[in-house]
């Protein structure tokens, strides 16, 4: 099993039936729908097979290693894609279509050009396809993508300063909810927890299980407990990483206690749970 990367981090999986001596970084010519394409090998063997299984991608065959001339042709292909993008953008404007053109990608053999776009609703682009087919004299494919896929194709860096996860190792997008941010005690300000795509950052899910498991070990904030000293103290903070509990007494003095020591010595303050009994006096009626 071989993972091959094409333009804008697009990755697909292929079978090396001829057992070519491939290494990461090699350029190969592969079978695709009605033709062939050229890409760079990014993974081989068991890891590539595991990624393919997760993605459940259709498999085609690797034909051969690319020649020097074919590798040089990739640079010229980029120029053609820039021209195609400009032409398509003008046609979209002419037809007054409510869509945002994201990228253009030529298949290496020239048998197809794909235009990627985003739109808030369904777009009737049949006339646009006819116009583009008349101009480029080849198969035209318009593919609608989401804002997360748009970020993947455009690329960039996240708030951490590293390359976007979706352009480096993520094969599938996992749903991310605001609950994941709450569980990690993060700011709920959208500008602080959103990626360049405008959606919640994918990395919010990476450590979610750790936070959920750790939180179960700790007492809830705000509850009062009594220790051997006999004075009630309120849980004012939790340190999940160092496993410490911050306590505050009624004079405002704070201290930190190891979680294990807290669990062994603390008992919940009865004054918190005790509620005054409500007398149920029946209404008396005059006879």
UniProtKB/TrEMBL annotation:
Residues 274-287 have a biased composition (Basic and acidic residues). Residues 268-287 are annotated as: Disordered. Pfam families: PSP1. InterPro entries: PSP1-like, PSP1_C. Residues 60-145 form the PSP1 C-terminal domain. GO terms for cellular component: cytoplasm. NCBIfam families: RicT_YaaT_fam. This is PSP1 C-terminal domain-containing protein. It comes from Candidatus Glassbacteria bacterium GWA2_58_10. The lineage of its organism: Bacteria, Candidatus Glassiibacteriota.
């Amino acid at each position: 099993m071989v993972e091959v990367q094409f333009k804008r981090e697009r990755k697909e999986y292929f079978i090396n039936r001829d057992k070519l001596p491939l290494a990461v970084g090699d350029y190969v010519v592969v079978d695709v729908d009605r033709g062939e394409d050229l890409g760079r090998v990014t993974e081989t063997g068991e890891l590539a097979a595991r990624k393919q299984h997760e993605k459940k991608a259709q498999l085609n065959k690797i034909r051969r290693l690319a020649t020097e001339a074919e590798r040089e042709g990739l640079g010229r292909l980029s120029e053609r894609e820039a021209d195609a993008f400009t032409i398509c953008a003008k046609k979209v404007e002419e037809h007054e279509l409510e869509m945002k053109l994201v990228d253009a990608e030529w298949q290496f053999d020239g048998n197809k050009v794909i235009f990627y776009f985003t739109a808030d609703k369904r777009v009737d682009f049949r006339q646009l396809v006819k116009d583009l087919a008349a101009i480029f004299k080849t198969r035209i494919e318009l593919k609608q993508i989401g804002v997360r896929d748009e970020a993947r194709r455009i690329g960039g860096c996240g708030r951490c300063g590293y390359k976007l996860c979706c352009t480096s190792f993520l094969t599938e997008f996992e749903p991310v909810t605001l609950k994941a941010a709450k569980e990690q005690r993060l700011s709920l300000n959208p500008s602080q927890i959103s990626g360049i795509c405008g959606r919640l950052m994918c990395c919010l899910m990476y450590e979610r299980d750790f936070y959920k498991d750790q939180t179960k070990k700790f007492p809830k904030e705000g509850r009062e407990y009594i220790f051997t000293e006999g004075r009630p103290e309120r849980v004012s903070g939790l340190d999940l990483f160092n496993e410490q509990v911050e306590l505050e007494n009624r004079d405002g003095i704070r201290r930190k206690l190891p979680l294990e020591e807290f669990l062994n010595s603390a008992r919940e303050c009865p004054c918190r749970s005790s509620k005054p009994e409500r007398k149920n006096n029946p209404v008396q009626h005059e006879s």
